[in-house]
Amino acid sequence: MSGWSTVVNLADAVLGRAVESDADLRIRREADLQATGGGAVEQIRESLTAVTGVTEVTVYENTTDATVDSIPPHAVEALVLGGASADIAAALFATVAAGIGTYGGTTETVTDSMGIDHDVSFSRPTAVPIYVALTLTYDASLYPSDGDAQVKQAIVDYGDTFRTGWDVRSSALLARVFAVTGVLDVTVCNIGTAPAPSGSTTITTTARELATFDTSRVTVSSSSTTP
Fold it and tell me: How many helical (H) and strand (E) elements, i.e. helices and strands, does the chain have?
């Protein structure tokens, strides 16, 4: 470490590190170049991704003179997951080129430096509530007293990792149940988009839909058995 002349200490020193390593700088530089010098769509996406709380962004553009997939001519639609709507609109307004429209189901008013108001629109993924019905057996000597609640939470924790357009598979949910100590077998793992699901058929979602999970929509029927 430059600048040190003498060090006397009884224990090993714990050295610090540079605020930003060379590797970190290279990664940041690539992102900065993409945001400022890339194509319009990539620039918009990088700008929105930088908004606090935003976890996923997809940008659609219509460069034609006709409406395409509901997007008006010469307009963009940003599909954004997470983040405050006002912050997203401000970032979108600051990035989209003059003369290009914005489209979507959420609209916020942004005031420019001249005091002129602009309506800025973008979209949110459509939530698809998922219902899960489980039947399982467990080893009473190992299964926690709140085992059923832990099973529900394991399903929801997995569901929280989902991204827009991901399909829901019964087998994938079933596998998460075994993360709870003492679970021996899962005999039923039904899924659906309505209460009391009765089948295990994969639930497909579109590129504009997001499967959502909540413990209130997960039911667990459990019983103890001999391992």
Answer: 5, 10
The dihedral through the CA atoms of 46, 78, 76, 85 has a sign that is: negative
Helix (H) or strand (E) segment spanning residue 196 = none
Answering whether pTM is above 0.90, one says no
**R_g over Cα of the chain:** 25
Dihedral angle of Cα 114, 118, 123, 129, to the nearest 10 degrees: 100
Q: How many CA atoms lie within 13 A of 21 on its CB side?
A: 5
Q: At what angle do helices 147-159 and 170-177 cross, to 10 degrees?
A: 140
Determine the Cα–Cα distance for residues 1 and 3; give it in Å rounded to an integer. Answer: 7
Residues 148-187: tens digit of each pLDDT: 999 999 999 999 999 999 999 999 999 999 999 999 999 9
